[in-house]
Please model this.
Amino acid sequence: MGYSMPTSGIMMFYSCASTMPHSTIFVAVAIPTPLRNLFHYSLPANEQVAIGSRVRVPFGSRKLIGVVTEVNSRPDIDIAKVRPVIEVLGAGGNLTEPILRLCRWASDYYHHPIGEVLASALPTLLRKGADPQEPSQLLTLTPAGSLIDQQSLGRAHAQRKLLGALQQSRRTREELSAMDISSQTIRSIEKKDWAQWHGEVPAPLEPFSSGTVNHSGITVTEEQATAIAAVQNRTDGKPFLLCGVTGSGKTEVYLRVIEPLLKAGKQVLILVPEIGLTPQTISRFQDRFDVPITILHSSLTDKQRALGWLQAREGSAGIILGTRSAIYTPLKFPGAIIVDEEHDASYKQQDGFRYSARDLAVLRAGFEGLPVILGSATPSLESLHNADSGKYHLLELATRPPGIEPERYEFLDTRHLEQKDGLTRALRHRIGERLANKEQVLIFINRRGFAPVMICNDCSWIAHCSRCDAKLTYHLNTNTLVCHHCGTISHNITRCQSCRSSQLSPLGLGTQRIEQTLTAMFPEFPVLRIDRDSTRRKGSMESFISEINNGESAILVGTQLLAKGHHFPNVTLVAMLDIDAGFYSADFRATERLGQIILQVGGRSGRADKPGTVTIQTAFATHPLMETLVQDGYFEFATGLLQERKEAGLPPFTFHAIIKAEANSSTTARSFLESIIAKVQVRNTVNLLGPIPALMEKKAGRYRQLLIVTSAN
Model:
């Protein structure tokens, strides 16, 4: 069944009065199911409906929310069997024509059902059929409640927490739930007449108006000025790849580029790879521009995310800052798209509807005629190849601002140096020196938990996940063994599952172990650990960043959460531990990612007027790629990798697609892929590899087999 697409950005409404003489019209609806076809429903002739409208429809015995993709579409079944639409939902949640076009393209390119693609473009609240503009119920302190002294509540900790939250502002039920405040606690203070629910009608959304701009005396460098002029005076629709060493001022280029757009009433969509990056990024934009900024990421409540989406759609937000899924946010007055840290793997959705937000940003900008900037100190090989082939404009920031020296790299060869709990004597000495100078130290190890392995000292049994081909990671603070792939948790493991011995030992390094070691070695200096486990609580990342910048923590231990764009002016030593896995991974992109993470993490040191040092503990200190990276820079390193890829026939010089089969048994998954091979006619320009097991064949109780399709075009 084909699609009917609007040819302009104008939302098109249909009614029977102008289109057909019958008493009923038919619409094609995309339903969020694995089925790839559209479904027809009927509407009364006097019902207005737009392409992109959300509708509630019967689907079997269920009632689902779908999106209208065609109006006046003739059903390919008996008209008598066409069921009526139950409800046309509020127009505030309609998908705009540019987003519909983007989703159609993504559905075709990524071979995913259009209904599920369109559903993923909607915030959860809209996906459920709700209206974010409905009056909100807010829990508000009564006059009696505002007089309560929290200390007088004694052990009623939950009530104290709730009253403290309400003293700051009124709260929705959703916000209170996110704060782990129970309904019982709410009812208890309602009964005491300390708080009451009040309805509030949201204010109408109006287009934003640009305010003042605060440059704070910042003068751009010649390289920055050249990059800014290139974007503002663009003569074609090619994307811009902005490459700059860490600390070279890429963000200042972003700020200067969007300034005239905001003054003209245009909106700017900015993608960042991690939620943890948003606090610092927000502050940079808030300090510069007096315009409403909308934030979109997965840690928001459903109501907050839906309202942010609506503010962008109605043009009341000037800057929209979000993570991967924000690429589907509609803009009423689109001006530009920026993808910061474009190389980051977080821009790829790895399950469900799989897509690359970076690639969709480039496509969307082309559809809407917008400038798009891909920024990175360590751009992906795909983007560099696109620049080399003339598809992208390359903008380089090769120097840091005056007074800021590049970080110095040194290697500690672990083949010849004794280690204590993962730290060589030389590294411990360097840490002590920086702490004595009242400087901060960052220790990077890209593995959370205490130890990646729990082993029996008597029989060498190792704790494995029963649902995955993976070892369980030991977490000290909860005394649990956790699978970082499926989430399985084993509590109170005190004996070997094979020989019943109690002689179990954690083996290997994780952030918790390094934190414990450094706390014991330097007891007078506060140690702060930042990883997925320590930042689960809402607002924790912002609190940690503030703590670091205020100098409250002297030693920072973290995973790649600390590697992405953060500015820590007092960090003068970065130490990198246990990075060698990147040299012998089966993933052909592993070496590229290793080089990127070394420079990204290393770039956290020496970002102010204090020189920085990056110390790398490795058994590959003399590896040619490592030497090229730190001596000649990322571009020479990337050039060498691109040449290797070309000779090996790997992307970006060829194209790869993976067909993955999952089943309850490996045999079933493999047989399914073999049946595909038997049924398809393969062109001479296409090669098939497989079926082969996935690198982790068993995951979450399911077996995975792959069929790799390669082609030169």
